[in-house]
Amino acid sequence: LRTIEDPRLAGGKHETENGNGSLMRILPLVFELYDIKDEEEQYKKIKDISSLTHSHDRSILSCFYYLTFARFLRGHYYPPIEMYKLTNNVVKKYVENHPNLEKENKHFERLLNDSIQDLDESQIKSTGYVIDSLEAAVWCLLTTKNYKDAVLKAVNLGEDTDTIAAITGGLAGLYYGKNQIPKEWINSIAKLKEINELIDKLSDKYGEARC
Question: Which of 103, 120, 140, 156 has the fewest CB within 10 Å, making it most exposed?
Answer without folding.
Answer: 120
